[in-house]
């Protein structure tokens, strides 16, 4: 039994719906269900009665979850006290960054921190937003550069918009359109496309489909993928093209050609939002100094996004 499992069960009881509870915790429903089953197995007690249509709390589960809720409140309060105590002697920032921000924004930010705040040491974790946000909630990260999920940010987090990333087109080097500096989306109707999985990359997935819809054409989707390196390697292998954040161009392997997308003819804004998020109720002078450096450099950071 651990606090993560307890938090999953308490949230499910509050929402009375596993899907809504998973969205609130910024995790996949399967992962939430697995955590609750592991908790039930560890305790030897069924917390929920599940049918195909509804979820209800068992009498034993109601008692356990009331105590679990109190325990989580006490743990959160203790974490805040301990974190404040631990930070008195050190200036470590545990920074999480989604992949495009890790390749495009973080190197410049780290250079600025080395110049402006040389006493701050950064411990970087690169992952997808859907995995970084639970780490913020669990207290294992102090600050994260993420995209919002399908629902608003959790109420325990504070999030501030930073900038938009523009999309680029990645094509196999031998593709007929690879010689062009800029490509119209309407020219991609016969190009097999590798599209991000919506569960793990909702903004990127919706951006790709939105671009095709705005151009009045349908994409020829050949593969869904959720890992960036998988998508890049598929493009390099000649399987198809992909639309991705511009900062991915920094890590494109050999065999991938980067083209701009002609967006001027398309209505609306077709860009990817990037936010800074951190625990709302935790005071952290080191984190606040890093946020100040980040905000002061935004105009320069956004030039290449």
Describe the structure.
The chain has helices spanning 3-15, 18-24, 29-43, 59-86, 99-104, 106-116, 129-138, 202-215, 228-236, 285-296, 298-302; strands at residues 48-50, 55-57, 92-97, 121-126, 143-146, 157-165, 167-172, 182-183, 192-196, 220-225, 242-245, 256-261, 272-279. It is of the alpha/beta class. It folds into 3 domains: 3-85, Arc Repressor Mutant, subunit A (Orthogonal Bundle), CATH 1.10.10.10; 90-164 and 273-302, D-Maltodextrin-Binding Protein, domain 2, CATH 3.40.190.10; 167-261, D-Maltodextrin-Binding Protein, domain 2. Strand 1 (48-50) and strand 2 (55-57) form a beta hairpin. The longest helix has 28 residues, at 59-86. The mean pLDDT is 86.
How many β-strand runs? 13
Q: Mean pLDDT, nearest integer?
A: 86
* Helix and strand element order: HHHEEHEHHEHEEEEEHEHEEEHH
Shape: globular
Structure class: alpha/beta
Give a quick account of the main beta sheet: strands, pairing sense, barrel closure: 5 strands, mixed
What is the element layout, followed by pairings?
Layout lengths: L2 H13 L2 H7 L4 H15 L4 E3 L4 E3 L1 H28 L5 E6 L1 H6 L1 H11 L4 E6 L2 H10 L4 E4 L10 E9 L1 E6 L9 E2 L8 E5 L5 H14 L4 E6 L2 H9 L5 E4 L10 E6 L10 E8 L5 H12 L1 H5 L3
Parallel strand pairs: 3-4, 3-5, 8-12, 9-10
Antiparallel strand pairs: 1-2, 5-13, 6-13, 7-11, 7-12
């Amino acid at each position: 039994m651990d606090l993560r499992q307890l938090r999953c069960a308490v949230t499910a009881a509050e929402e009375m719906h596993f899907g809504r509870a998973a969205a609130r915790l910024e995790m996949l429903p399967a992962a939430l269900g697995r955590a609750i089953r592991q908790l039930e197995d560890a305790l030897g007690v069924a917390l929920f009665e599940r049918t195909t249509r509804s979820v209800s709390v068992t009498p034993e589960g109601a008692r356990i979850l009331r105590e679990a809720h109190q325990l989580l409140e006490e743990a959160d309060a203790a974490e805040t006290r301990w974190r404040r105590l631990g930070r008195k002697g050190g200036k470590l920032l545990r920074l999480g960054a989604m992949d495009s921000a890790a390749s495009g924004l973080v190197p410049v930010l780290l250079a600025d921190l080395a110049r402006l705040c040389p006493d701050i040491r950064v411990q970087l974790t690169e992952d997808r937003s859907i995995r970084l946000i639970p780490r913020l909630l669990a207290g294992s990260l102090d600050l994260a550069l993420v995209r919002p999920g399908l629902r608003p940010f959790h109420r325990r987090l504070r999030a501030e918009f930073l900038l938009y990333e523009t999309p680029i087109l990645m094509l196999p080097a031998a593709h007929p359109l690879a010689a062009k500096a800029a490509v119209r989306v309407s020219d991609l109707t016969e190009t097999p496309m590798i599209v991000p999985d919506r569960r793990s990359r909702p903004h990127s997935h919706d951006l790709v489909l939105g671009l095709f819809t705005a151009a009045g054409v349908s994409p020829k989707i050949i593969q869904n993928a959720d890992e960036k390196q998988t998508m890049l390697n598929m493009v390099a292998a000649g399987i198809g093209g992909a639309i991705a954040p511009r900062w991915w161009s920094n890590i494109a392997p050999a065999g991938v050609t980067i083209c701009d997308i002609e967006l001027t003819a398309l209505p609306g804004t077709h860009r990817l939002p990037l936010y800074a998020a951190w625990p709302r109720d935790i005071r952290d002078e080191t984190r606040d100094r890093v946020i100040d450096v980040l905000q002061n450099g935004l105009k320069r950071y956004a030039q290449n996004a």
